[in-house]
Amino acid sequence: MKRIRQFLVVVLLALTGLVMWGNIEVGQAHGDTSVSVTPISPKTGEEVTIKGEKLSVNATVMIELTGNNATINLGEAKSDQDGNFTSKFKIPADMKAGTYKLKASADDDTATTELTVLAGSASNTTTASTEGTAAPILERPLWETILLVAFFGVLAGAGIFFAQIRNRKATS
Amino acid sequence: MDIINSKPPSLETGLDQAQLPSPAVSRPKRIWGWLDDRLGLSAIRYKVPAHANTFWYTLGGITFIGIVVLAVTGIYLAQYYDSAPEAARQSVIYIQNVAPFGGIIRGIHVWSAYIVVITSALHMIRVVVTAAYKIPREINWLVGLALLAFLLFVGVFTGTILRWDQESYEAMTHNMLLTNSLGGVATFFSHDLNSNIPMVSRLYTVHVSLVPLILIILLIAHFFLIKHHGLSPTAAQADRGEAPGGRLPEDKLTGHYPTHLRLMVGYGLALLGLAGALAVFIPQAIGPVPDPAMEVTKPPFVFFWLYPFENWFGLNGILYSAIGLFGLLTVLPFIDRTPLRALRQRKVALVIGVVLLVAVLAASILTAVQPVARHLS
């Protein structure tokens, strides 16, 4: 039974890791630096808008895609005094369809995100449509996040404590 | 003898205990007594086996608490959700970003759904390991399987569609194609029943009415049978002959049900805390407006195990794998005929269980690492 318990704990941890890893979010990276792409699923030959934030200030940002055993250099952009940039790039028409990691690197800063390239030629309308993007999730202020985590942490702790209380007297 | 007006006992008088006045009853005890007389609360103070009051035997109760959390958070979400196709996604965005505590409650609802599927699967694994599906609990095993299947394939699935984003649209397309494959059996979930009402609205009605109704009926049956048969013996107890007919005698029931309830509530609160923390750290995304020409998403991770079969066998691969898994689990009590309950003595159950568990995990990991595949025409 002990081995089975250990095995199930390992399974639970693996599943938790699976959730964290396999969950593909909107093309936004977490952390201080970030890069996003619109649309998140462009076709080959289509133009995409890549937006980076909080990278190195006034630096040349290299944009490349990695995946499917290939590294494709999309080009360069220039970050402003806040480390932000917005630039348009074209997905090569002969690129293989699939999921790629997009990397924006400037001096010591790097931001990554994922996008899925679809097969097929792009239409004449190359402007990225807002309908193709995921809905923005409102970011919480840090104090609110801390308060909520503390609340749910206390709730979980109280629950486990309540479950673990030993009966002091036998019920009749 | 007037007991109330009698004097306190003394050594000289030698009054016996029956003649002594009763000690004063505290207010909480009087309130409890009043409630107990009218509600029969003492009836829950029955005995259970000591092993009932361990975490592994409380998983079923934890799952139940999770379902209650789903119902409560779902009622809140229903106040803001609009099931009309043109408004559904916007209403979910409103819930996430504008409605008071909407993002947190939506997150708790979704994460609780995933956690409940996991805890019910763990509960099922515990039942298999301890052979609790054996006589006289075979029917209750089938009720439990029906609960898991309904939770996953109707509850979680219809919930995924309600967001009405790209992932929801692809899920709906799977639904339409699968109901076509199943023909008359699945008419209720198809356009054939009524094409005047949008499918997303009809599946919303299923999600908020049929799902709770069927779950309640199945849960009542499940709880009744558990109470009727009593909690199953451990494998060791059964193999030592201490549980004739799969039932433990009175002298082996050394635990108490209120303790079991306390474990359920305590661990249930922990489940709620976990769901809340996950809702804060990993908020549920809302994908883009559906594009019928695209297929760019994977299902929620609780359905990952179906994906490779769809890759290999097409859309019907989903049916083959689901029927295969639940079919094997259904016949398990009837295949495993050995009178012994220790897992090592039940080679058939051990092989089936390990094969299914490894298959589900391997298929899920494969789906997580491979890119999105196109299945829909």
Characterize the structure shown.
The complex is a heterodimer of chains A (172) and B (377). Chain A has helices spanning 2-22, 142-164; strands spanning 34-38, 43-44, 47-53, 60-67, 70-78, 85-90, 98-106, 109-121. Chain A has 172 residues and is an alpha+beta fold. Chain A has a five-stranded mixed beta sheet with strand order 2-8-7-4-5, with no helix packed on it. Chain A has a three-stranded antiparallel beta sheet with strand order 1-3-6, with no helix packed on it. Helices cover 60% and strands 1% of the residues of chain B. Chain B has a two-stranded antiparallel ribbon. Chain B is globular and about 75 Å long. The chains are: A alpha+beta (172), B mainly alpha (377). The interface between A and B is large, with 53 and 56 residues.
Topology:
The complex is a heterodimer of chains A (172) and B (377).
Chain A: H1 2-22, E1 34-38, E2 43-44, E3 47-53, E4 60-67, E5 70-78, E6 85-90, E7 98-106, E8 109-121, H2 142-164
Parallel strand pairs in A: 2-8
Antiparallel strand pairs in A: 1-3, 3-6, 4-5, 4-7, 7-8
Chain B: H1 27-39, E1 47-48, H2 59-78, H3 85-97, H4 102-129, H5 138-162, H6 166-182, H7 199-229, H8 235-239, E2 255-256, H9 257-281, H10 307-313, H11 316-335, H12 347-369
Antiparallel strand pairs in B: 1-2
Helix pairs in contact in B: 2-4, 2-9, 3-4, 4-5, 4-9, 5-6, 5-7, 5-11, 10-11, 11-12
